[in-house]
Amino acid sequence: MREVAVLGAGMTPCRSRWMEKTFWELAQMAVSEAVRDAGVHVQEVEAGVAGIYNDIFEFQAIPESGLQGIVGLQNKPLMRVSNGGATGAYAMLAGYNMIASGQYDLMLVFGVEKALDCYDFEAESATPAVVQTIGYSWDPWFERPLGAHASESYAEVIQAYMDEYPGDLAPRARARIVELFCEHAQNNPYAQRLGEKVTAEQVLHSRYVVYPIRALETCVYTEGACALVFASGEMAQRIKERTGREPIWVTGVGAANEPYFVGNDITRYKVLHRIYSDYLATRKALEQARLTIDDIQVIELHDAFIPQAMITLAEMGVVPLGRGNDLVEEGIIMPGGKFLVNPSGGLVFGGHFVGGSNMMSTWSVMRELRGKNLEHGLVHGTGGSLSMYGAAIVLERRV
Amino acid sequence: MPRRKKEPVISPAMLPKVGITEVQAGGRRYLLRNDVMFTAMQHAQGEFSDFFLALRDEGKVFGHRCPQCRHLIIPPFMKRCPACNFVEMSKEYVRDLGVVAATPVITVFAPSRFKGQVPFGTGRVFLETLDGKLSDTAMLIRVRTTRGTIRPGIYKKGTPVKIAFRDERKGEIEDIFALPQSELTAEQLAKSPLFESEIEWGRLSEHEIGEATPQLQEALREVKSHFQKLAEMIPQSARATANLANWNRSVNVQTGGGNFSFAVKKGKLQVRDETAEEADLILTVKDPSILLAWLRDSTEGIGEGFESPALTDLVVEGTLVLNKPELETITRLDRVPRSLRRDHVLAR
Q1: How far is A118 from chain B (nearest CA, A)?
Q2: Residue of B283, B306, B310, B307 whose CA lies nearest to B295
Q3: CB contact under 8 A, B112 and A211
Q4: 3-class secondary structure for B249-276?
């Protein structure tokens, strides 16, 4: 396996709706920023991976086809990756492997998504149509006909965890994490909720989306794009000679998906109160990087819902399972604490353009490693029914 | 919940009319084109047909058991056991009794195609096998209650449940639902299959209202006077009137401090001291003062700084109980305070 580096990143602003732009234009904006940031000409790029979650959001089957020439990859391979909420992370894994295998030296990995074009003409609101579009991710025989949908599904895991660990994921601890991520987002120039101030009290007074999750604890719907330039070690050195800029290294990757059906045997079924995929993916990525969670200084994790993010942090080993409240009460992720978590504001405040959100997380970790002179960061993606998909990537700044 | 024959799969109101809307953003003009991603289906139920036929014709649930590892899965989502290198599994009936795997979830903001069903509960159930054990997987099912709408506290991890069947079964997963065993009689528990029409629904009187106290009666007087004030404010707001337009419901409100009723009709709210003989909806709340936060926000605007208190939240929490899963009256009322503010009927 060859070494893989990330040379540059490009983002569009995250917005709930881009009436002004199609996903073609959003993708081109992010890619043009990324190649500029990496210091390469797009025609040097040999291949690409496109993370696009849901064809319905793009209103086109094989939505990547139109992008081929637009992002400068004419007559080159472009693979589209679609892995639910973890699409961005899985797309990065694919790009990593295409370089690590020795096949390519310089690649584009980008993610793009629309969402709010979906509209429920009966309710005169976009939200039910967006929820329905995501709801098409459930199987059409057993679960979708019952009205299964994203927040219901994550809430099942959260409820089951709270059955197992009563008193953990306390409302006030959750609310303080929301407040924290909101503050973080104010340092992210691309954040969807730039300029917002959300207090813990507001969180505790916000409406329920599904019991017991409140509106201010959930990620937003976002339209936007993010692109990254990946390179082999050798190519990274060559480009460094002309840019003078140190790359960020990908030193570990891991992924695992839990099965769809629920049972008590964790080797065979989804165990409801766990997000075992996050545990497995993080462990694999850390093992490859020859690190433990304690070596990580900055984590950008996929916070679809704040209580789920707390479970994910426990699965990663930041706190033991059942001790999620310590994240706040012991100050572990609070300002000055051991871990800097979601400095971008995460998916709740930064934005969740599904195909590329995890790439925004990578953009953010790179920025923190460089800006704060840190060494190790961790990027995480989840998705699918019951948070069944998990992917983790370790990034390193060499000093 | 059951869909009627000849009912279209998608409500015609969800289908847009041909048209293009011009919108402005940043001083420029942009177009929004009405369209729909349309694919009708005759969706093959394939190897699952047997399972759905058993629900429809036999009123029974079966799973698949692996002859090697002895795991029994419900629903029978695969025919071969991957843990045993794909040895063929065999059909095995399970009982209509079981337990919920974890506290079920209550949905109030549903996907488009389920809007008319809220609030609804979904949970996972392990069902008893004929050898007295539990299935190895738990299946997703609608969890219901005979006592008004679904709310927290009725089910928790391990709650014993009975699977009941719709009277008119179609051969689909919606043919079955779960009820807490504690809400059924010994005869009902013993009957298999138990049909929806054999269950007494909406027994709200059993919802403990308790004895009226002077405080509760005083609270009710205050609630009614706020409701009356609200009824007078709504005609002054075009938005609030629109919130209640095309919706006619008479609603009885039962509280620990006494009862009253209101009606939504022709975009107006009418409040009455006496209850209606045949109300469309019954709301039950033990302590009427629980409604005051929403009412004060509606008539005085105390919700500033926070999101307005919502009647919907009271339903979700289970403090306000409906006799049937029809949330629309509540969600329409919840839009009123914001409309009154936007139309300056309520000073901001």
Answers
A1: 9
A2: B310
A3: no
A4: EEEEEEECCEEEEEEEECCEEEEECCCC
Q: How far apart are CA A7 and CA A50, in angstroms?
A: 17
Helices (H) and strands (E) in chain A, counts: 14, 13
CA B333 to each of CA A128, B244, B271, B336: distance values in angstroms, whole numbers, following the listed order? 19, 7, 14, 5
* Model confidence pLDDT, tens digit, residues B312-347: 999 988 889 998 888 999 999 998 988 898 898 876
* Angle (CA) A345 A350 A355, round 5°: 125
Contacting A residues, span 102-161, partner chain B, CB-CB under 8 Å: 119-123, 127-129, 131-132, 134-135, 140-143, 145-149, 151-152, 155-156, 159-160
CB contact under 8 A, A19 and B173: no
- CB pair distance less than 8 Å for A155 and B312: no
Domain residues for B145? 47-200
In a domain, A268, yes or no: no
B348 lies in some domain:
no
Does any CB of chain A come closer than 8 Å to the CB of residue B28? yes
Q: Which of B309, B2, B17, B184 is closest to A202 using CA atoms?
A: B309
Interface with chain B: mutation pick from A55, A121, A305, highest number of B CBs within 10 Å: A121
Structure confidence by residue, pLDDT tens digits, A238-276: 999 999 999 999 999 999 999 999 999 999 999 999 999
| Tokens coding B187 | 């005869």
Contact A31, A51 (CB under 8 A): no
User: Helix B292-299 to helix B214-233 angle, to the nearest 10 degrees?
Assistant: 30
Contact B314, B320 (CB under 8 A): yes
**What value, to the nearest 5°, has the Cα angle with vertex B257 and ends B256 and B260?**
100
Interface check for A97 against chain B (CB to CB < 8 A): the answer is: no
**Total domain count, chain B:** 2
Q: Do A163 and B43 touch (CB under 8 A)?
A: no
B84 to chain A, any CB pair closer than 8 A? The answer is no
Q: Would you say residue B205 lies in a domain?
A: no
Measured CA to CA, the distance from residue B141 to residue B99 in angstroms comes to 12
Mean pLDDT of B179-208: 89
Classify residue A256 by its DSSP letter. E
Contacts of A17 (CB under 8 A, 6+ apart): A116, A223
CB of A264 within 8 Å of a chain B CB? The answer is yes
Which H or E element spans position A81?
strand A78-81
CATH of the domain at A90: 3.40.47.10
Which residue in chain B is spatially nearest to A273 when comparing CA positions? Answer: B102
CA nearest neighbour of B144 among B117, B114, B110: B117
pTM: 0.95
Q: CATH number of the domain that B262 lies in?
A: 3.30.1050.10
Q: Give the pLDDT band of residue B183 (cuts 50, 70, 90).
A: very high
> Could you give phi then psi for residue B312, rounded to 5 degrees?
-55, -40
Tell me if chain B has a CB within 8 Å of the CB of A21: no
A266 touches chain B (CB under 8 A): no
Within a domain: B34 = no
Same-domain check for residues B162 and B272: no
Same domain, B174 and B274: no
Is some CB atom of chain B closer than 8 A to the CB atom of A207? yes
Are the beta carbons of A162 and B103 separated by less than 8 Å?
A: yes
Dihedral (C-alpha) A132, A133, A134, A135: value to the nearest 10 degrees?
Answer: 40
Find, in chain A, the residue whose alpha carbon is nearest to that of B303: A205
A322–B contact, CB cutoff 8 A: no
